[in-house]
Amino acid sequence: MAGILNALSGWFGSIADEFRFVFIEGNRYEQMITGFVNTLKITFGALIIGIAIGIIVAAVRSTYDKNRDKMRRHKGIGYFILAFLNAVCKIYLTVIRGTPVVVQLMISYFLIFVSVRDGVPIGIFAFGINSGAYVAEIFRGGIMAVDNGQFEAGRSLGLNYLQTMIHIVIPQMFKTVLPTLCNEFIALLKETSVAGYVGVVDLTKAGNSIAGRTYSYFMPLITVAAIYLVLVMILTWLVGKLERRLRTSDH
Amino acid sequence: MTTNEVLIKTENLQKSFGKIEVLKGINTEIKKGEVVVIIGPSGSGKSTFLRTLNLLEEPTGGHIYFEGTDITDPKVNINLHRQKMGMVFQQFNLFPNMTVLKNMTIAPVKLKKATKAEAEERALSLLDRVGLKDRANAYPSQLSGGQKQRVAIVRALCMQPDVMLFDEPTSALDPEMVGEVLDVMKALATDGMTMAVVTHEMGFAREVADRVLFIDQGIIMEEGTPEEVFSNPKSPRLKDFLGKVI
Fold first, then answer.
1. Chain-chain contact of A158 with B107 (C-beta, under 8 angstroms)
2. Considering only CB atoms, which chain B residues are within 8 Å of A145?
3. Which of B54, B84, B106 sits opposite A167 (nearest CB)?
4. B164 - beta bridge partners?
5. pLDDT at residue A251 above 50?
């Protein structure tokens, strides 16, 4: 019995020593904090851009799908504008979803914004554009899942297309897409771990560089993994709370 | 109740879905204050006809005049005319994420037809008339089918329409709830509301209608007062139909 206790306390002691060596010595924890903050900045910045793009692209695509047949008959200028926007959205979705996010990030950094040498805003831009494509399709699916009778009821009351979308359809869409959207946010948070490719010290990069400097891989990498895990758990918990609040109308 | 003022007039109204002709030229008039009940076998085009009246289905030919305006003209802002045409659906189509009160006030408030306070006052008095004032803060999922449809009716009325279109309003209801919805519709007819009703409730048609249209194969096969249509049908199709449903 005493032997087991001794072994355990020895093990904890060595863990504590390792922690001190890896993070405290040389103030290496500061690097971890910088990485943590940058990961959050990129994730939430990209999230906001992604949702904005997602709403716009989904609105264009579903408006086009809903009105295509009707507008074909009249062929006004509105039809051509809408058809053009729809084509642009389709190209965007195809290109973004057809190429790896790391490549998009590097293209943004090395080809598009050559004069900007701060990887964080470029990361926000690249991950935002990337996430927008997935969010757009999630929203479009959500809009199509709202019963067409809801749309008809709105229109029959005299609300125009946009008013019906904004006041009737989109609020109902949010409830349906919330779980899928949460998935996308989790994926986004973890995808930002490739930001190191353009010189950003994000959480992963920080862990990796500490590991390289100390030749100790266990402590930095497990810590990085644990931080991601806790972030994802917090995010899931928040979305779950929001879902329960939106469900009030269902009982 | 019927006046001589024509509220809705259709001229050679046609609707095709692809190659299938559903309406093959409907000519009729609905006068202010008139209650027109539309009957016919399923697939006859009666629901499509009703839904073309406010352009939820866009006609593929002919004209619809509403209060003197040709609303089939693409230049017309249909939203303004729809504000004057209430519609009640078979599946109620209440907004599930809003309370009863919000369901009723969202359109008048967003369309600036009334302030929030005015709209709520009107909504509550309408709810009172259909016996649902105490359900104002309930969500649609907390209501029975009959209550939902009564709310759907007063939601349309909250826009103060000139005509009410009913698309099989009792077809999705349990039998014991049909009566409460028909009672509301009868009261509405008595108050002088212009109504176009697609229904299978022959008792309601007989009792409330000023005129009955029998639509079959995309045309008005026969029309007349309830007395004429139900007691003295002329066309063999109508005789056959009545034989099956009554």
1. yes
2. none
3. B106
4. B86, B195
5. no
